[in-house]
């Protein structure tokens, strides 16, 4: 790091009324050039300002979420510590919300399940979404993640196939373990996530008592234009609690909204949930000394090599006034970053950066960022106009209404000044369509298995056996092979369990559920006859 990186960040608001911003409220410092590898190109996918601009333009002429449909939300604030562990945070990032100890930034958080529909039980085995919208003085920052710290895949092109496999069968409309495991056994990078999801970590007890993670690898940039790789982790001060399959089924029998109710009731009685935000930091290079790529979303960064550093805490202290207006219409995007935060080359992050914001324009509308829950809590001035449900034009005071373009000398908007030095990483290489090196698909799954307590191991094996028992033998063998590669005991117990398991029943049942096949017949047998009326 250069000598000036620890100097205080200039907190002065240098924007003017006629400064050009995007709809997130981010000042636009360069409205002439997209981000490219060298000045001749090619362009990179994470051109957020360009994508925001062109995607809105594409929709200027005049549904339930595909994933994360079931959700609960709350308002609160993030309080910065002003440090990153024991060091001044300005050493690593110039993002204003982190700089001052005690500085509070308003937030809105949406928790969710991933695969299941809007009114599905909150006890189902599934990752949980953990999305935080920071309403910063520089515009919005969305930190969009899950409760688990890794993901099933490492390349965004596989995401539609993954979700299709995990969603209900297109013919029967039933979730099908065979479809799930068919995808996973043929995508070995999924095995670490499968190990977590089929363990008790796959059913958090509620939203307040679960961790959160940014999952993707991001970058922090300081005033000197120097960058580091960063991972985000939310740790609940309420403690962490997970459920077994049996416990989840018992709760579901009496309340399928239990997690939403728990969050709402806790805030209403003044028991405000809190999370502390930690980061892991790594120098911005390929780290050939590691046996995995730090941009691989299926991997954990070892905390003994990359320690967790506290940077702030979040408190949720206000429930929504209207569910649809705030929770349902809340729209997040991984590309929504403020100055001092940046993208890494993480392939999942780069794909999500286009997909998330594009989804919001389709789902909520071209002007979703004018809704109060999504709008930044600062001035906005853009040249975007038109599109479904526009109710105002984001003009600056005194702006010439005839000039909806830039540059102009006739009273239009002007670019913002760039204050921190721009981060310009060196990128070399041929454009290819290849997977990353150092895949190491099962090593960390074995480490995770060995870290589990005995009851967690037992629950994992029981749930996997239940899901795999009715599946095609070829799928079983491929899953056993992955488990054996991860850990000898893991593979042996899975093979023994499948050998002893009944082959009867259907695979078309919720993930990890043992007795779903019996439910239709049980409903007939237990049903009470009635005369017509």
UniProtKB/TrEMBL annotation:
Keywords, sorted A to Z: Heme, Hydrogen peroxide, Iron, Metal-binding, Oxidoreductase, Peroxidase
Segments for region (Disordered): 1-40, 493-533
Lineage per the UniProt record: Bacteria, Bacillati, Bacillota, Bacilli, Bacillales
Gene Ontology cellular component list: cytoplasm
Biased composition (Basic and acidic residues): 512-533
Molecular function per GO: catalase activity; heme binding; metal ion binding
Heme is among the record's keywords: yes
Species the sequence originates in: Heyndrickxia oleronia
Protein's name according to its UniProt entry: Catalase
Cofactor needs: heme
GO BP annotations listed: hydrogen peroxide catabolic process; response to hydrogen peroxide
InterPro entries to which the protein is assigned, alphabetical: Catalase, Catalase_AS, Catalase_clade1/3, Catalase_core, Catalase_haem_BS, Catalase_immune_responsive, Catalase_sf
